[in-house]
Design brief:
Layout (H helix, E strand, L loop, with lengths): L1 H21 L7 E4 L4 E5 L3 E6 L4 E7 L5 E13 L2 E12 L1 E10 L2 E10 L2 E13 L2 E8 L6 E7 L6 E5 L13 E2 L13 H9 L11 E7 L3 E5 L5 E4 L5 E7 L7 E7 L3 H12 L12 E4 L4 H13 L4 E5 L6 E4 L2 E4 L13 H10 L3 E7 L1 E3 L13 H9 L13 E2 L4 E4 L5 H15 L6 E5 L16 H4 L3 H15 L7 E4 L12 E3 L13 H13 L5 E2 L19 H11 L5 E2 L27 H16 L1 H14 L4 E2 L1 H4 L13 E3 L3 E3 L9 E6 L3 E4 L5 E3 L2 E6 L7 E4 L5 H14 L1
Parallel strand pairs: 19-20, 19-31, 20-23, 23-27, 27-28, 28-29, 29-30
Antiparallel strand pairs: 1-2, 2-3, 3-4, 5-6, 5-11, 7-8, 8-9, 9-10, 10-18, 11-17, 12-14, 13-16, 14-15, 15-18, 16-17, 21-22, 24-26, 25-26, 32-33, 33-34, 34-39, 35-38, 36-37, 36-39
Family: Belongs to the glycosyl hydrolase 31 family.
Keywords: Glycosidase, Hydrolase
GO molecular function: carbohydrate binding; hydrolase activity, hydrolyzing O-glycosyl compounds
Length: 744
């Protein structure tokens, strides 16, 4: 008897709970034609928006539990060197959902109801609007403005694979993972040891497998579905439940709603094309951009000598990137720059004349800028640094403020600095004029537009926008301002600037991305392998033109383990970079500790790490990249028209080959060149998996059938790469590589 009473009580309790969600719903399944092809299917168990001819669901909302929840949480952010740590305290929790009305109209479905809890109650509304037969927009609003967290859950298939979310560095596929999206320093090590532990102990700057400069709340799936959220607050994506995806955005009420778009299609390329049609595409690169970009610093004499040395070795140098054009500033972190944006006449006397002399040798000159203005370092005794641009910006009120309304002093790596307030129209005009006069006006053909991810969480901005939601937008505006300056100067298509921080719509403004500051190591999470993942994942979310510092950047001297660049590392990194849009080197933050692609002896007898063999091998690898110029140009042209990336994830080109998807460090250049770079130290033979079709090894000419794993020799200078026989670009690639193979 007792067991029967228990079962009866449990059944009543279950029905009461279910009724909170299922109130006003018909007991049997029904469907409503939203459009000719889209159906709204409603049952006691779930809601589904489906494209009937394709048999694909835009979205499925299970009614077994609330698919919408909301909270109020107070958040404090610990901020150091653009690494953020958050602490939250719960104030309100609305976790019970009722559905009170479903309004069905042609092209539109509206759901209304209430979210409630012991301490809160709010009306909600969800609107789905059909923009086309393959595109749905959604908007979720709540009546209680004090609720600042929203959680939205929708269905997923257990076998569905998830790709994208901007530039990731560790995971190329995200099913089962719980990434967060917030632009910040990627971290030093990101899980590679012992450097991550050391960086955390010293500065809380180690990062983890999800920290990234350039996240985007957009992904595609193996079900040929694409999801994009417009919001810019901190976000958590939870793919750990095999049957559901749960997304939580912070501070959404500052943007009035949670808004997004869902596309369905037949190919991942089609989905990327639809996404970038909405959010923007990169322009074509100028013709000079396809040669070697030598990243060198140290003054006119040094850089001129290294350019000559490289060209004499047969290296197709077309650009010289001198980040210290604005001056050198030595700190505890290494060789840094004077963040004052005009030419340093001590290092580069008569800078305009120097730039012209390089141009006369068919070498374009690129510089460096960021949105900081540096100050004198009070920790450095007798620091004689001055910055007239900072003094001007302070006097005119162009800087980001703190909670007290004072200019926000930020301790960067090496010295204090201030951020320009990009929400202040006068500050924006001043910054663009500075770029036009001091960079474009001196003849520079481009620059690194660095940083963008450092806006403090508690900053005060001129426009009144909340820094919590503007933080992720700041790098987008930084790219926009650089691009507008170029357009206003009449130099569109002739100048290239490259950015590392980004978010949604960065691809509408930036002309090129680079992957930021990897370690000079073979580390999985923050070394050479991570640069491959950064390329393949970022392309899925719109960063169609991307590249990395050849050899990495972050160099650490440590009693436990030194992270100094080796000859092997820089040459292996060059091999991978030969199959990317841009081939650019970097000396790293401690140039004298790193192996370089040049040899140079300073007047005082100090020698760089490098040898003649490296100069020769690097030139040979550079010629591979340059030989592929016609093919890469065709891919850049395609990217400008479709948004499809130049470097392609395996899931874009061969989505059905589950074996290929296991080889996450292989990638495609276009569709017809498969690259399997060596990413481990000491490897001279490489395992390669070949997908469907026939493939020809570039260096031996051996042809292999697909759907198999092979081993090929991988000596430095001959990176494992394979031509698709019968591909539309076969003839173009074959003619390009045959010239190199015959010469080298």
């Amino acid at each position: 008897m007792a067991s029967r009473l228990f079962l009866l009580s449990f059944s009543i309790f279950f029905l009461e709970c279910a009724s909170r969600i299922l109130s006003h719903l018909p007991p049997t399944e029904e469907s409503f034609p939203v459009s000719k092809q889209i159906q709204w299917i409603q049952s006691a168990n779930e809601f589904t928006l489906r494209n009937q001819p394709l048999g694909k669901d835009f979205i499925k909302l299970s009614l077994a539990e609330p698919f919408l929840k909301s909270f109020t949480k107070e958040t404090t952010a610990k901020y150091r060197m653009a690494s953020f740590q958050f602490k939250e305290s719960l104030q309100k929790s609305c976790t019970t959902q009722s559905i009170d009305e479903i309004k069905k109209e042609t092209g539109k479905i509206t759901i209304k109801g209430k979210l409630s809890g012991s301490d809160c109650s709010s009306d909600y509304q969800i609107i789905f609007v059909a923009k086309s037969e393959t595109e749905i927009e959604f908007k979720i609003t709540l009546s209680d403005p004090t609720l600042n967290r929203i959680q939205f859950q929708y269905g997923s298939h257990p076998e569905e694979r998830i790709y994208g979310l901007g530039e990731q560095f560790t995971h190329d596929e995200l099913k089962g993972k719980t990434p967060f999206l917030f632009t910040e320093e990627q971290g030093i090590g990101r899980g590679d040891q012992p450097i991550t532990t050391g960086a955390n102990l010293l500065a809380g700057a180690g990062g983890n497998v999800y920290t990234t400069y350039a996240p985007i709340p957009h992904y595609i799936t193996s079900e040929n579905r694409s999801v994009f959220f417009e919001n810019s607050g901190y976000a958590n994506f939870d793919f750990s439940d095999s049957r559901n995806t749960r997304v939580e955005f912070w501070d959404f009420q500052s943007e009035k709603s949670l808004t997004g778009t869902i596309w369905i299609g037949t190919t991942s390329k089609g989905l990327i094309e639809a996404y970038t049609k909405k959010t923007g595409r990169f322009p074509k690169l100028p013709d000079w951009a396809y040669g070697t970009w030598l990243g060198v610093q140290g003054g006119t004499e040094k850089v001129s000598a290294i350019v000559k040395q490289a060209k004499d070795a047969g290296n197709p140098v077309t650009a010289l990137w001198i980040q210290d054009w604005c001056g050198r500033r030595v700190t505890n972190f290494g060789d840094q720059l004077k963040w004052r944006w005009y030419a340093d006449e001590t290092l580069y006397p008569d800078f305009k004349k120097f730039v012209k002399s390089m141009n006369d040798q068919n070498v374009q000159v690129l510089g460096y800028i960021n949105s900081f203005l540096a100050d004198t370092d009070p920790k450095k005794q007798g620091d004689d640094f001055t910055n007239p641009l900072l003094a001007e910006a302070k006097s005119k009120g162009y800087l980001v403020k703190n909670q007290k309304g004072e200019d926000y002093l930020i301790q960067t790596v090496g010295f204090p600095a201030y951020l320009i307030d990009l929400t202040n129209p006068l500050a924006v005009r001043w910054t663009k004029d500075l770029i036009k006069k001091n960079l474009i006006g001196t003849g520079l053909s481009g620059w690194m537009a660095d940083f963008g991810e450092w806006l403090p969480y508690d900053a005060k901005l001129a426009s009144g926008v909340d820094a919590k939601i503007y933080h992720n937008r700041y790098p987008v505006d930084w790219a926009r301002i650089n691009r507008e300056a170029i357009k206003e100067a009449g130099m569109e298509g002739k100048i290239v600037f490259f950015t590392r921080a980004g978010y949604s719509y960065s691809n509408a403004h930036s002309t090129l991305f680079w992957e930021g500051d990897q370690m000079v190591s073979f580390g999985t999470n923050d070394g050479l392998p991570s640069s491959i993942i950064g390329l393949t994942t970022s392309g899925i979310s719109g960063y169609a033109l991307n590249h990395s510092d050849i050899g990495g950047y972050t160099t650490i001297s440590n009693p436990l383990k030194n992270y100094h660049r080796s000859k092997e590392l820089i040459l292996r990194w060059a091999e991978a970079s030969a199959f990317t849009p841009v081939f650019r080197t970097h000396e790293g933050n401690r140039p004298l500790k790193n192996w370089q692609v040049y040899t140079y002896t300073k007047p005082d007898g100090t020698k760089s790490l490098g040898d003649e063999d490296t100069v020769t091998l690097f030139a040979k690898i550079a010629r591979i990249h340059f030989a592929l110029k016609p093919y890469i140009q065709s891919l850049v042209e395609e990217a400008s028209q479709t948004g499809i990336p130049v470097v392609r994830h395996n899931a874009i080109v061969e989505p059905e080959d589950l074996n290929l998807l296991k080889y996450k460090y292989q990638f495609f250049l276009g569709d017809d060149l498969l690259v399997a770079p060596v990413v481990e130290s000491g490897e001279i033979v490489q395992d390669v998996y070949l997908p469907r079709g026939k493939w020809q090894h570039l260096w031996t000419g051996t042809t292999y059938d697909g759907y198999r794993k092979i081993q090929v020799p991988a000596p430095i200078g001959k990176p494992p790469a394979f031509l698709r026989i019968g591909g539309k670009s076969e003839a173009l690639i074959r003619s390009s590589i045959s010239n190199i193979r015959n010469k080298d």
